[in-house]
Specification:
It is a single chain. By secondary structure, this protein is mainly α. It is globular, with a radius of gyration of 16 Å. It has helices at residues 3-22, 27-31, 44-63, 68-71, 74-78, 93-98, 104-122, 144-168, and strands spanning 133-135, 142-143. Strands 1-2 form a two-stranded antiparallel sheet.
Length: 170
């Protein structure tokens, strides 16, 4: 098995978790923010949108192609009152509130489109490509392999949070 096959499997598990977390939920539950103290927690909508935006942003960057968000019109379909380059990083509570959907299929559709683009990119790589430095702002510099594992890790944490929120909202 190649390293890229392992990465494809990891990204596939994220996709499966996105589907099982989102599908079958009413819109009000997707957009609900659980009370976790002084500031409400993140909604399932925000968590899934954010993890998908990060995957889209980071994979597009290392692959040298446009983001699915803009290239395939997802930014327009979502119609969020945010800059189309926004990925959710550092969002305020008000910005989290602004990330809402009227149809769960929108979240799943965007994630599926990003997942397909990620798999297409992974198919172009071999193990040696994963050693390519993609970000020299860090010490040590970040390789492609490390960047992709970082995206999987971030997505896994966020979809886990979304699953937890789903359980809280029962």
């Amino acid at each position: 098995m190649r390293s890229t096959d392992l990465l494809a499997d990891a990204f596939g598990r994220i996709q499966e978790s996105v589907r099982s977390t989102v599908e079958g939920l009413e819109v009000d539950r997707l957009n609900a923010r659980p009370e976790t103290g002084a500031t409400p927690g993140n909604s399932i909508t925000w968590l899934v949108w954010h993890l998908t935006r990060i995957e889209d942003d980071h994979v597009a960057d290392v692959a040298g192609h446009d983001q699915v968000w803009t290239e395939q019109g997802w930014a327009d379909r979502f119609g969020l009152p945010l800059d189309e380059t926004d990925t959710g990083f550092g969002h305020t509570s008000e910005q989290v509130d602004a990330v809402r959907v009227d149809d769960p299929a929108l979240l799943v559709g965007y994630h599926d489109a990003v997942h397909a683009r990620t798999l297409d990119y992974l198919r172009t790589l071999d193990d040696a490509d994963l050693d390519r430095v993609v970000d020299e702002r860090w010490d040590p510099p970040v390789t492609l392999g490390v960047r992709l594992v970082s995206v999987v890790n971030d997505a896994g944490q966020h979809i886990g949070q979304a699953g937890y929120v789903r359980g809280l909202l029962r």
